[in-house]
Amino acid sequence: MASTQAPDRRTLLDMYRRATAVKQNDERFRAVIKSGKITATYYSPRGQDIIPAAVSVNLTDQDYICTIYRGIHDMIARGVPLKPLWAEIAGKVTGTCKGKGGAMHITHPATGVMVTTGVVGSSMPIANGLAMAAQIRGEKRVAIAYFGDGASNIGAFHEALNLAAVWKLPVVFVCQNNGYGEHTRYELATSAAKISDRAQGYQIPGVTVDGNEPLAMYAAAKTAIDRAREGGGPTLIEALTFRFYGHVFGDADAYMAKGEKEAAMARDPVVRFRVWLIENGHATEAQLKDMETVIERDIDEAVEFALSSPVPDAAELSRDVFATELTR
Amino acid sequence: MSASESPKTMNTLQAVNLALDDALASDPNVILLGEDVGDRQAGGVVGATKGLSSKYGDARVRSTPIAEQAIMGAAIGAAIVGMRPVAEIMLMNFTTVAMDMIVNHAAKLRFMSGGQTHVPLTIRTMTGAGFGNGGQHSDYLEAWFAHTAGIKVVAPSTPADAYGLLLSCIEDDDPCLFIENLPGYWTPGPAPMRGQRIPLGKANVVRAGRDVTVVSYARTLNTCVAVADRLAKDGVDVEVIDLRTIAPFDEATILESVARTGRAVIVHEAVKSFGVGAEIAARINEHLHEQLKSPVTRIGAPLCPVPFSKALENAYIPSESAIEEAIRSRMSRKSR
Looking at the complex, does the CB of residue A275 fall below 8 Å from at least one CB of chain B? Predict the structure, then answer.
């Protein structure tokens, strides 16, 4: 790893704060959904926590992200405020999208979360457009497109990488390869040994990195984001990872190899990062505990806010369809 | 171009080019993208964008790969952050390749984001039977889009309307699908008044009449006017309404007209089954059933892909005689 790509202590702690926020929120989402207090189709991102944390610490407030319906970790790591995030998942009028989008379509332009798509593969063509606007306007913004390994097999991926390469757009394609597209194992659906190999077809840099390894993930993200920002064009990052709770929360995982999940959970990337930070003298146990306590309190407040908020009025069906409210 | 030099007539191709030119000149956020739209590619397959990349630069008038999802995605992303892209999908049948981007994203992002984002995008596309282009280059698919919440559908019938409606689409804060008729591009008409916008969502009463209301749009509107002129000589007074905007359509103007005439015929080139005519007929029935002197009827293409052979193509397109027959048969029904 080039020494210039090594995060300083402050950045390491910022990464940990974002990663543990993903972890702690996920634990609460699953508990609250299980309790029946919120009804939502939930795609747990646990296990993939490090990836967006390492990307996000390399972004400025001006940068854009496009993510997908299983991208709640991308939003939390980016810093979408928890109260409206939780309220959106609960379908409340105080949600980021007034309860009209839901967990699969959380949008928060104030933190650069411009689109969350429910369609596999669709984050990439739109991220190109965000990057194109920045390029035309001469801004130094970068757009991140998050997607999964399954999305690298759909046409939109290939169209988007080709266009981004031809136009040298300031976009970074971050593929979170968790080994499964829905319930189908990687090898059964994907011809390439590595997804990053596909970058060669478009003559752009492609890199495969252990997405659960904070320093490696940070370096890959930083290199790609810096390159995009300086006019060097797009990069495809394949971040290898694993999801702890299947595709959709509650799925039986019968399609997985025996012991695969348990082995991955035993190597929980957030827990490992925590131990590493303490062992290497970047933080004390007390410091991290304090950080986690603050996040836990924020989550308490967000859950309370979400549960106590009102539901949207049926009149919302006429609003935001077009610029002008519909009369029926 | 100074006022003194303004031409008296213009065709739709020239009118579209002029509207794009004026939009690019007045707002730096307007950009064009699509296959072959740049001057190095001769300004589009029919020349609709000729001269514009030379005038405004390759950054704002961008030729793209043949990749409709990529074109539409780029346009949507740019629109979300305040640009006003005009994305050209060469032929309407090719919108099918970008359907996810158009229907799931452009049309829905305003609602799904609770109004935090919107997509001020114009999609220009051309279509229409008549040039022997067969089953995958000629379809009118406007009903698919009209059925989708969040996107406006516009289809001009004259050069001046094309100019004024296209400017309105580009300046509108919602995504608009702007449908141009390919065989009609070179038909001259009165030149538009420079800078004059035509409001979206408002129909145009092209010809006032007392006996029958005929509703149409795009090329068949002109066929309807020709038929109405001929019927006038036989004492049948036809009111012809050009929808201009198919969705959301101007229900008030249609209902006001049919309430007076008591008879209605809806005409479009698209397949009749499940078409725009069905929706308009249903609305008329819902509101005016008691006042109708005869059942509302529709003229459209048969449920058939657009055929190649000239003989078949002529039989496919709604004919003047079919429209005339429909109007006459409305008149021969006994008044209630």
Answer: no
Spot the catalytic one: B105, B118, B137, B268. Answer: B137
Rounded Cα distance between B161 and B181, Å, is: 12
Residues of A in contact with B174 (CB under 8 A): 322-323
pLDDT at A2 over 60: no
Model confidence band, residue B4 (pLDDT cutoffs 50, 70, 90):
low
d(CA B124, CA B219): 16
The pLDDT assigned to B228 comes to 98
Which residue range(s) make up the domain with B89? Answer: 3-190
**Total structural domains in chain B?**
2
Q: What is the C-alpha to C-alpha distance for residues B111 and B148, in angstroms, rounded to an integer?
A: 12
Burial of B3 (0-12, 13-18, 19+ CB in 10 A): exposed
- To the question of pTM greater than 0.90 for the whole model, the response is yes
The enclosing domain of B270 has a CATH number of 3.40.50.920
Whether residue A130 and residue B60 make contact (CB cut-off 8 A), yes or no, is no
**Residues A102, A88 contacting (CB under 8 angstroms):** yes
The proportion of chain A whose per-residue pLDDT surpasses 70, expressed as a percent, equals 98
* Residue A153 scores a pLDDT above 70: yes
Q: How far is A147 from chain B (nearest CA, A)?
A: 15
Please write down the HEC assignment for all residues of B238-257.
Answer: EEEEECCEEECCCHHHHHHH
What is the pLDDT at residue B1?
Answer: 46
pLDDT confidence of residue A253 = 82
Using an 8 Å CB-CB cutoff, list chain B residues near A321.
110-111, 149-150
**Chain B residue with minimum CA distance to A108:** B116
Amino acid (one-letter) located at B312: L
Report the C-alpha gap between A17 and A282 in whole angstroms: 13
Q: Which domains does chain A have, with CATH numbers?
A: 3-307 (3.40.50.970)
pLDDT value, residue A4: 63
Cβ atoms B10, B192 nearer than 8 A: yes
Residue B317 domain flag? yes
**Please, which residues have CB within 8 angstroms of residue B89's CB and are 6 or more apart in sequence?**
B34, B68, B71, B72, B95, B98, B123, B124, B125
Query: B267 has which bridge partners?
Result: B299
The alpha-carbon gap from A256 to the nearest alpha carbon of chain B, in Å, equals 31
C-beta atoms of A160 and B73 within 8 A = yes
- What value of ipTM does the predicted structure carry? 0.96
Q: B190, B213, B244 — which closes off a domain?
A: B190
User: What is the C-alpha to C-alpha distance for residues B83 and B81, in angstroms, rounded to an integer?
Assistant: 6
| Percentages of chain A per state (helix, strand, coil), in multiples of 5 | 50, 10, 40
Concerning whether B118 is annotated as a catalytic residue, the answer is no
B235 and B168 belong to one structural domain:
no
Residue B336 has pLDDT above 60, yes or no: no
Residue B145 has pLDDT above 70, yes or no: yes
For the segment A310-328, what is each residue's pLDDT rounded down to a tens digit? Answer: 999 999 999 999 999 988 6
Tell me the chain B residues in contact with residue A159 when contact means C-beta distances shorter than 8 Å.
65, 67, 69-70, 73
The confidence band for B332, taking pLDDT boundaries of 50, 70 and 90, is confident
Query: Is B268 marked active-site?
Result: no
Any residues with CB less than 8 A from the CB of A124 and at least 6 apart, and which? A66, A145, A147, A151, A156, A157, A160, A161, A173, B73
B240 pLDDT higher than 80? yes
Quick one: pLDDT at residue B202?
98
